[in-house]
Design goal:
The protein is α+β, with helices and mostly antiparallel strands and about 130 residues long. Helix 3 packs antiparallel against helix 4. The chain has a five-stranded mixed beta sheet with strand order 2-1-5-3-4. The longest helix has 12 residues. Strand 3 and strand 4 form a beta hairpin. The chain contains four helices and five strands, in the order αβαβααβββ. It starts with about 25 loop residues before the first helix and ends in a 7-residue tail after the last strand.
Length: about 130
C-alpha cells in the first residue's frame, strides 16, 4: 500500500495550522533574543528516549538543525542516528513540526518573538508510511 500518512490526516482535527508561519526575525531583532525551545518526542523515538518532553534555550538566529544538534548532545548518538543520516540530512521516516507546521528544511529559522518554540518529532513505523 502506498498511501502517505499525511495524505489522510485532517489537519484541523489534529491541531495542525494552515496559516503561514511568521516571517523570520530581522538581524536587529536577533541580536538580543534568546529562543526558548520545547521539544516533544513521539512514536518510536519517544520509546527509545529517556525524555519525551525537553526544554532548553538556543541563541537567536538558531535553525532546526541547531535544535537537532542540541538534542543529539543531550540524548546521545543513538538519537542522532535515528533522526539524521550519515550526511546530516533528516531521514524520510522522521517528521518535524515547528509551532504546528510541518518542516522539511533543517535550515528553517526559529521564531524568537513569541513564547517557546514548540518542536514535535516523530519517527514513523512502516504501517504509518515510514
Amino acid at each position: 500500500m502506498s498511501v502517505r500518512w499525511d495524505a489522510v490526516v485532517k489537519y484541523g482535527a489534529v491541531g495542525i495550522r494552515k496559516d503561514p508561519p511568521p516571517p523570520p526575525l530581522s538581524a536587529q531583532d536577533c541580536r538580543a533574543a534568546v529562543i526558548q525551545v520545547h521539544v516533544q518526542l513521539f512514536g518510536a523515538l519517544a520509546a527509545a528516549s529517556p525524555e519525551r518532553s525537553i526544554r532548553f534555550e538556543l541563541p537567536a538566529g538558531a535553525v532546526i538543525a541547531d535544535v537537532l544538534a542540541a538534542l543529539g548532545e543531550r540524548l546521545g548518538e543513538a538519537f542522532s542516528e535515528r533522526v539524521l543520516d550519515l550526511t546530516g540530512a533528516k531521514h524520510r521516516h522522521c517528521r518535524l513540526f515547528v509551532d504546528g507546521y510541518p518542516v522539511e528544511q533543517l535550515r528553517a529559522p526559529l521564531d524568537a518573538r513569541s513564547g517557546p518554540t514548540q518542536v514535535e518529532i516523530i519517527l514513523l513505523i512502516a504501517p504509518e508510511g515510514g
